């Protein structure tokens, strides 16, 4: 199965120029201390801020809950493949043992059993590809939802803050930044206030099955 990459969409350098059109949502109020009003005022007069991607991934409830959903799907797929793989190994071992002990009544019988094992192997490969594709599609769906959630929140958030540029900081893509430009916690607080639990919806769906 392919390793899940949850933050590929946020490795881009910037979410820029958020002086935006009207939005129906009121600007969310944050419980924790907001970013300083002086944050990001550059020498040119441009207001700049940044958001730590790793913190979004670990503290935004949507990311935490969806990660659990994806991990559950991944574990289920892995368990299914392991079970099918063990069945294939058992069938192949039985075939080899019977072949060595002259347990087949004819070559045709041995050929039919061997062909069945080969079909079983092919089915397992197709199942692995399908489950991998499904997990990739689910991960892409998560990434798209995360991007939309963050961008929609920042549109509302920036009505009051009026930053000219909001950067995403992931790893070393920003080599240095003053801490006063960091609006991460402010953004996380606002995102979590807006978020409606996905995990609860998934759990309800599982109970109905």
Report on this model:
The protein is mainly alpha-helical and 209 residues long. Helix content is 59%, strand content 6%. The protein has 5 helices and 3 strands; from the N terminus they run E-E-H-H-H-E-H-H. It has helices spanning 53-59, 61-100, 107-161, 184-194, 198-208; strands at residues 14-16, 48-52, 165-169. It is elongated. Residues 1-34 have low confidence and may be disordered.
User: What's the overall average pLDDT, rounded?
Assistant: 81
Strand order of the largest sheet: 1-3-2
Helix content: 55-70%
Supply the helix-strand structural class. Answer: mainly alpha
Shape: elongated
The count of DSSP E runs of length 2 or more, i.e. the number of strands, is: 3
Task: Write a brief caption for the model.
Helix content is 59%, strand content 6%. With 209 residues, the protein is mainly alpha-helical.
């Amino acid at each position: 199965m392919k390793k899940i990459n949850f933050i590929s969409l946020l490795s881009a350098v910037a979410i820029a120029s958020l002086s935006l059109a009207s939005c129906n949502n009121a600007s969310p109020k944050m419980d924790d201390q907001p970013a300083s009003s002086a944050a990001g005022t550059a020498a040119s007069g441009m207001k700049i801020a940044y958001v730590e991607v790793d913190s979004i991934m670990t503290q935004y409830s949507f990311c935490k809950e969806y990660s659990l959903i994806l991990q559950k799907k991944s574990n289920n797929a892995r368990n299914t493949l392991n079970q099918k793989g063990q069945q294939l190994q058992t069938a192949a071992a039985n075939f080899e043992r019977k072949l060595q002990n002259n347990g087949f009544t004819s070559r045709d019988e041995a050929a039919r059993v061997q062909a069945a094992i080969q079909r079983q192997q092919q089915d397992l490969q197709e199942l692995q590809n399908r489950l991998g594709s499904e997990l990739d599609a689910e991960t892409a769906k998560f990434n798209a939802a995360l991007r939309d959630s963050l961008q929609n929140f920042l549109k509302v958030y920036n009505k009051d803050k009026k930053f000219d540029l909001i950067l995403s900081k992931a790893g070393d893509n920003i080599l240095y930044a003053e801490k006063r430009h960091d609006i991460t916690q402010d953004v996380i607080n606002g995102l979590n206030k807006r978020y409606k639990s996905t995990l609860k919806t998934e759990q309800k769906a599982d109970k109905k099955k």
